[in-house]
Design brief:
binds coenzyme A, 7-stranded mixed sheet, alpha+beta, Aminopeptidase, 7 strands
């Protein structure tokens, strides 16, 4: 048996009127620009960032390694993939943050799947990745950026608001979930 749950999401937007100033990474962290050889690493960091997060209920593909690989490949091979807005952050022990960019039919830049692994949150990496993607969009003439965020994802909403994004639309995403009575616990 299944039940449908509706997740409230905001579409947030930001005009890119002025040159966007990049944010410096903390010491010991560095940028990895997009290359096809990094597709699997983006998928892995996406998985590590999201699989224990509530967004993995909203987008079940974020909850498994295979789902993240498929999602990353789908993004990469879309004709509107924007490599300039797609970045990894590497730390002393490997990659810890990811963001991808797509350009929509209006020429607006869509921020996709911004994620930082749990043990590296609160260091400024999420903000740096967001701004780095915006710098990438601005470098190819994108006039406006947008993203979607689950309404109760406070860290993400605060980050986007602090960067100047504002909510323009509320959306509800319907997700089929197993009915609570049918979930077997401890088997
Ligand atoms: C959202 C996320 C990317 C933020 O990454 P981060 O590296 O921790 O963020 P930063 O350290 O750059 O923090 C930037 C701002 O985010 C907000 N923020 C970060 N962590 C927060 C928390 N635990 N609670 C509330 N706000 C928080 C704050 O506004 C913070 O600004 P401040 O430093 O002035 O307080 C990270 O929490 C994450 O990967 N979450 C899981 C995946 C996800 O939800 N992605 C967004 C999908 S839309």
């Amino acid at each position: 048996m299944q039940t449908v749950k509706y997740f409230k999401r905001h579409r947030m937007e930001l005009p890119l009127r002025h040159p966007v100033q990049p944010v410096e990474l903390p010491a010991d962290y560095r940028w990895l620009a997009w290359s096809d050889g990094l597709l699997a690493m983006h998928a892995e960091v996406k998985y590590l960032s999201f699989h224990q997060h509530a967004d993995a209920l909203v987008f079940p593909s974020l909850g498994t390694r295979g789902g993240c690989q498929d999602l990353m490949a789908a993004i990469r091979f879309r004709p509107n993939f924007c490599p300039q807005a797609t970045w990894l952050v590497a730390g002393p022990n490997g990659c810890v943050g990811t963001v991808q960019g797509l350009i929509d039919d209006n020429g607006y830049g869509g921020i996709q799947n911004l994620g930082v692994v749990p043990e590296c949150r609160g260091l400024g990496l999420g903000r740096a990745l967001l701004v780095q993607a915006l710098v990438g969009f601005a470098s190819v003439g994108v006039p406006r950026a947008f993203l979607e965020v689950t309404a109760n994802n406070d860290p993400a909403v605060r980050l986007y608001r602090a960067a100047g994004f504002r909510a323009y639309k509320t959306l509800y995403r319907a997700v089929q979930l197993p009915h609570p009575d049918t979930v077997a616990v401890g088997l």
